[in-house]
Write a structure and sequence with these properties.
6-stranded parallel sheet; 10-stranded mixed sheet; single chain; 33% helix
């Protein structure tokens, strides 16, 4: 009996997808086609995926299963292309599925036009059941047309709707083989495959058909692989796309194509260099790149491509600048020599919100080194984790080596980061460094220097000052401050310079200096915390006092123990309603005698309770941490022989 050539070959790589594989296969098997094949390549799965594939192959003669040792997605797809016999090839990931019979329509339109490629839409499908197409809509002038692949790529890129995913397209097999198209063994391999395929395609049918369900899930390959590998591969792909662009000339009909290839390359550079800013490991070697080639070609690009490339270059340059600043920082240079055996090492795994450290270098003990170089993660004596943004830095669970001490560092309120209240998570850490007064290392928002700075009298006179301002931008609202302010502003005018209820613009915003200069111009400053919790007294309270203004405070129930003087702030708890508070503030803004009562504390010694807190900060928290290196951990905290993973928050 003569073998009939399949009309479609579905290439499905498999790796540990036992939960999703049946749904994937069923979506293909129900298609109303009389002749197609499914090539399942089990890439060394360690779960039941291979057995599931074999079971389906027993029941369906057009399913072919190949088992191989793990070779990776690219090599597996390439093997599928070699084995396929269909007129057209479609790639399908084993945790995704086909939507209805839509791919049949794409196949019929593509084959009838004898096109090299056919294109449709993939829907991103999320765990909550929602879905959407981030690349839609396809331009109307392309839908239903059979066009040149280079023109297709150019138009999709120009209108910002280009989908790079390999499974958005079907491919004529003979055409693939004639051009020897193969996947490179890199992450984001589609970013290289698809532009090359489109540049080779003489005819592509563009449809607006939603045919592919792209499952978004935790634990997939793209959420688990290391950042360093992704960066290297993004550099590689960007370089290859630039080399592809060099095959075309600016002084020809390919100017638009060449320009858009550079746009895609610099987008990948933007992503790679932005990720580079998070690489804090000196073992990482920065790959060779062509970021600065933009200066040689920018004036030859089309105007829209030039503007896009310049913007992408600026973002990439900022990431590179951040990375190089870290590489050249004191905390790295200090470790250019061999560490003496008697010297203890503290690794700060991630700094607070990626800001520079402000540790007094000259106070660090001689037998202690502080570094931010993660190559010492397994050998450091102490490792400090800034917990609120740790999830942005981790790409996998961390094992705690025997004898190493871990420090939980956070100045954020637990009400806003609930994992900080999880005993199972927090027991991994031997020490706690936070604003809490019972922390192992108290790291508050007030500083030792405040003992002198707080008593300085304001420079502006009463009549020169404006009434009330605030600068609140954070969306956190555990304290209910938004609702309170919304009502309060019905009865009194407040100049709001932050994102919350914004009605004023800061002429010059240079950070902390601009904020303090603004506060000096006002009698009162709204100092509403985002949460109400004991000891959680932040810079909102102290910045107002340092600027010579009077804070209107909502927040910590024990705020009095953090106040430097008597009657130094307006406590909203003393008023029955926002309306009553507003009436008092209106009067105080008019009556200098009432207002000055809030400044009398500056003429007297600071409260003993506050001075005791201030004195405890004479030694910087991280210097105090150095002193703990030779002490045993507190018996109340978990520390022992067993290892435990620190899971991402």
């Amino acid at each position: 009996m003569k073998h009939e050539t399949p009309v479609l070959s579905f290439i499905i790589p498999i790796y540990n997808v036992e939960l999703y594989l049946p749904a994937c296969l069923e979506s293909v098997l129900h298609l109303p086609l009389t002749n197609f094949e499914i090539i399942l390549i089990d890439d060394g799965s360690t779960d039941n995926s291979g057995r599931i594939a074999d079971k389906y192959a027993e029941n369906y003669s057009h399913i072919h299963v190949i088992h191989q040792t793990n070779a990776g997605l690219s090599a597996t797809r390439n093997r599928g292309v070699e084995l396929a016999e269909g007129n057209y090839i479609a790639f399908l990931d084993s945790d995704d599925w086909l939507i209805g019979d839509q791919i049949v329509d794409i196949y019929l339109q593509t084959s009838q036009a004898n096109a090299d490629m056919g294109m449709g839409n993939s829907l991103f499908c999320y765990p909550d059941g929602s879905n959407g197409n981030p690349f839609a809509p396809i331009p109307q002038n392309l839908i239903g047309q059979t066009i040149d692949g280079k023109y297709c790529f150019t138009e999709l890129m120009k209108q910002n709707v280009y989908p790079p995913m390999v499974y958005n397209y079907i491919y004529r097999r003979e055409w693939l083989l004639s051009h020897q198209l193969r996947f490179e063994s890199v992450l984001h391999e589609d970013e290289l495959w698809t532009p090359i395929a489109l540049c080779y395609a003489r005819r592509i049918v563009v449809t607006n058909i939603d045919f592919y369900g792209y499952r978004q899930r935790e634990g997939s390959i793209m959420t688990s692989l290391r950042r360093e590998k992704r960066i290297h591969d993004l550099f590689f792909i960007a370089d290859r796309l630039i080399r592809l662009a060099e095959n075309y000339r600016f002084d020809s009909d390919d100017k638009n194509l060449k320009s858009q290839l550079y746009v895609r390359s610099y987008l990948l550079y933007k992503i790679a260099f932005s990720s580079l800013a998070h690489i804090h490991d000196t073992r990482f070697i920065l790959p060779t790149h062509h970021l600065y080639q933009l200066f040689a070609i920018k004036n030859k690009l089309t105007a829209d491509a030039r503007n896009t490339c310049i913007n992408q270059y600026k973002t990439a340059k900022q990431g590179l600048k951040s990375y190089l600043k870290w590489r050249n920082s004191y905390w790295i240079r200090k470790l250019t020599y061999e560490i003496p055996p008697e010297t203890k090492l503290i690794l700060i795994f991630n700094t607070m919100w990626n800001k520079p450290l402000d540790i007094p270098i000259q106070k660090i003990p001689a037998n202690c080194i502080i570094t931010t170089d993660r190559q010492f993660l397994s050998t450091a004596d102490f490792v400090v984790f800034h917990l609120p943004d740790l999830s942005n830095e981790l790409e996998e669970d961390l094992d705690k080596p025997e004898g190493q001490k871990w420090v939980a560092w956070s100045l954020e309120c637990e009400e806003n980061y609930h994992f900080l209240k999880d005993p199972e998570f927090m027991e991994v850490f031997d020490y706690k460094m936070s604003y809490h007064q019972d922390a192992d290392i108290v790291y508050p928002y007030y500083r030792y220097e405040y003992r002198k700075e707080l008593i300085l009298m304001p420079e502006f006179s009463f009549h020169e000052k404006k009434d009330i301002c605030m600068m609140i931008s954070s969306p956190f609202n555990q304290s209910g401050r938004q609702e309170y302010l919304q009502e309060l502003m019905q009865y009194i005018s407040i100049d709001s310079y932050g994102k919350l209820f914004n009605n004023c613009k800061l002429e010059k915003d240079s950070g902390q200096d601009s904020k303090m200069e603004l506060y000096r111009q006002y009698k009162f400053v709204i100092a509403f915390e985002n949460s109400r919790a004991n000891d959680y007294v932040t810079e909102k309270f102290y910045d107002s006092l340092l600027a010579g203004a009077v804070p209107i405070y909502l927040g910590a129930p024990n705020i009095e123990t953090f106040a430097p003087g008597e009657n130094c702030f307006v406590d909203i708890r003393n008023f029955s309603s926002p309306k009553e508070l507003a009436a008092f503030l209106i009067e105080a803004c008019k009556n200098e005698k009432i207002y000055n009562k809030f400044l009398q504390w500056k003429k007297e010694p600071l409260k003993p309770e506050f001075m005791k807190k201030i004195e405890a900060q004479r030694v910087h928290p991280f210097i105090r941490l150095c002193h703990l290196l030779h002490l045993p951990p507190p018996t109340s905290r978990y520390y022992g022989a067993r290892k435990k993973n620190a899971h991402r928050s």
